[in-house]
Amino acid sequence: MQMEQKKVTVLGAGSWGTALALVLADNGHEVRLWSHSKEQAESINATKKNEKYLPEITLQDNLTAYSDLADSVRNITTIVVAVPTKAIREVLRKLVPCLYQPVTIVHVSKGIEPGTLKRISEMIEEEMPENVLEEVVVLSGPSHAEEVCLRHPTTVVVSSKNLEKAEEIQDLFMNQHFRVYTNPDVIGVEIGGALKNIIALAAGISDGLGYGDNVKAALITRGLAEIARLGTKLGANPLTFSGLTGIGDLIVTCTSVHSRNWRTGNMLGKGKKLNEILEEMGQAVEGVRTTEAAQQMATEYGVNMPITSSLYKVLFENVPPKYAVEKLMSRDKTHEMEDLVNILINE
Ligand SMILES: NC(=O)C1=CN([C@@H]2O[C@H](COP(=O)(O)OP(=O)(O)OC[C@H]3O[C@@H](n4cnc5c(N)ncnc54)[C@H](O)[C@@H]3O)[C@@H](O)[C@H]2O)C=CC1
Ligand SMILES: O=C(CO)COP(=O)(O)O
Known about the structure:
CATH superfamily of the largest domain: NAD(P)-binding Rossmann-like Domain
Family: Belongs to the NAD-dependent glycerol-3-phosphate dehydrogenase family.
CATH topology of the largest domain: Rossmann fold
CATH architecture of the largest domain: 3-Layer(aba) Sandwich
EC number: 1.1.1.94
Bound molecules: 1,4-dihydronicotinamide adenine dinucleotide, 1,3-dihydroxyacetonephosphate
Protein name: Glycerol-3-phosphate dehydrogenase [NAD(P)+]
Binding site for substrate: 110, 260-261
């Protein structure tokens, strides 16, 4: 089938922005990859490589890096935003004055804003005036950039209030290596994608402490229960959490050495200090800020999130990880089924 060729801009030349730009270029689109670093943009164009984030990968000729934001979005109607959650508002504030036509924003980041407790699509709707924002689409799911770039089979979900728009973005990205599903539940898709990073940090800690598969299975299963508890309270469809952006992303992030969240947790479990780890990583570790946000949400909405609360204490109150595990295991007894039924009927 002949694919319609489009012009697409990707904002953020980190690992995920670059990997998605590569998928779009594979599909024959004219891809502009914007970096806030002039040096990085020049290096990508000169070497066809993103040396800092994905040095092994050769980028295609129909992918060009830009460092001038206005140039990068000239005559463009589809923009993929791939910067860490903490940079989203800043980038959108720079973007809006560069736009002279309505655009569709595809956001691919995974986080919640501490303080405001906003999901990313809500932040985008707040920052972009209606005359330049046509629609917001979320792209999420189990997808490490390192494997997407190797064209390993990967499955993701696109979600929007506007199904037609979601299908348009599905067609834009979909190819034989990159399978894209749609799901109308924007809240569930964003909450699953953001909160799985909390559980991945906890899974990394568990591995760092030397625990095995029993703990990993417990964290994934009970982690999903608390994600679903909060998500349904916010209006998500509980079934979304059994899909790619729920359990799917939870599995990949809790078990992959590619995950920055898992690796951060792993080093914490081995006794390293959080600020040293984050400095060494030099990349987005979204789960740290999302733990802060989720802890605030749990309090605000009266939702029981024991793993999140324990991790919050480890990250922000210097509670030793081993002690946090002991505390988790010695909580009052409870019923599994009652909990699951409550999620389904959203009590
Ligand atoms: N790496 C992956 O495999 C995946 C990442 N994600 C999500 O994508 C988002 C981005 O993650 P990565 O690309 O992996 O992070 P990264 O750390 O590899 O790259 C982030 C990029 O954003 C840029 N950036 C940071 N602050 C900026 C600012 N204020 N203005 C402009 N640019 C700025 C950095 O220079 C860098 O190019 C995160 O929310 C992450 O959870 C989602 C799925 C997969
Ligand atoms: O979201 C991801 C995979 O789906 C990437 O996870 P990390 O941010 O932990 O690397």
